[in-house]
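Methods: holo model generation. Sequences were used as deposited, without trimming of termini or removal of tags, and paired with ligand SMILES retrieved from the corresponding compound records. Each pair was processed once, and we did not select among multiple samples. The sequence and LBFN2T5F SMILES for this entry were:
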Amino acid sequence: MSPAAAAAAAARATSFAATFSASTTPSSRGLLRRPFPGTPAPRRAVASMAVSAPRSAAAASFLERRESERALHFVKYQGLGNDFIMVDNRDSAVPKVTPEEAAKMCDRNFGIGADGVIFVMPGVNGADYTMRIFNSDGSEPEMCGNGVRCFARFIAELENLQGTHSFKIHTGAGLIIPEIQNDGKVKVDMGQPILNGPDVPTKLSSTKNEAVVQAELVIDGLTWYVTCVSMGNPHCVTFGAKELKDLHVDDWNLSDVGPKFEHHDMFPARTNTEFVQVLSRSHLKMRVWERGAGATLACGTGACAVVVAAVLEGRAERKCVVDLPGGPLEIEWREDTNHVYMTGPAEAVFYGSFVH
Ligand SMILES: N[C@@H](CCC[C@H](N)C(=O)O)C(=O)O
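and the model returned the structure below.
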């Protein structure tokens, strides 16, 4: 659909302010298709306790009024509990909300609540679309792994596509290619990891060729061994510290230790940090402190960086299941292409309007 047709369809579509589905059953997911541009929505409740009763005249007029103001329609998606407010920005190369507004929208008490805001924008350089994202603090990262799976599913809804599809997405980390599979999961070609220290970026000295592998980083008297990997965005991966016998990731208070990694002088662009336990050579468990978002339930680029780091440290095979607090991701770092592949779920859970 052309941007002009999409805009016209969007104008025809009914606003569904504060309409949501907490269910993840296929039938409720089917209902969620209706209100997107191009598929004018019926003016009735959609799997929602909020609007299941007939609307009073007062309530209807409230919604009409909201519609006539500067209402921004959004759909909230989640990938393993890493949640994003998705904005249809196909008609403009300028994000429809500012970083400050994004931070407000992401606030879990004073806003909608999310780990970030993602914009579906026109493609450039031969790409089908461009993805931009603001973290929940308003900063703009280069890439988001769970976000790009949500992005692919959102495009399929916007363009009314069924079945398997792949898209070329321009991101701050270059071209990323998600493919919606028959089972609804999304497999993403995440490109090649960047290992050169200054390019990650980190000021830590390289230890293995040009890569920073098991380098020492002292935080609060503990000497952590860290491996630095960029998946377009920077990651610092640790499997433990000199003074610790084993790293039990569940024992750590990430909001205490995470910011000390994120803002460490060795990371000029700040960093995401992954704390990892090796369950077997093909099964890893991690928790993450994200740059600009704090402790989240999952991080796709982080899981990719973890497998790359585990291979570089000789701890795991190239194909692993990575358990995150929100669920598992399948990750493979292919030897022949040097590309990393990530497979996992993504689904719409909530749609509504934000008045700004
Ligand atoms: N959760 C994301 C990563 C989002 C960006 C990150 N916070 C950063 O600033 O780099 C993922 O799934 O990759």
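Residues 197-338 form a domain with the Diaminopimelate Epimerase; Chain A, domain 1 fold (CATH 3.10.310.10).
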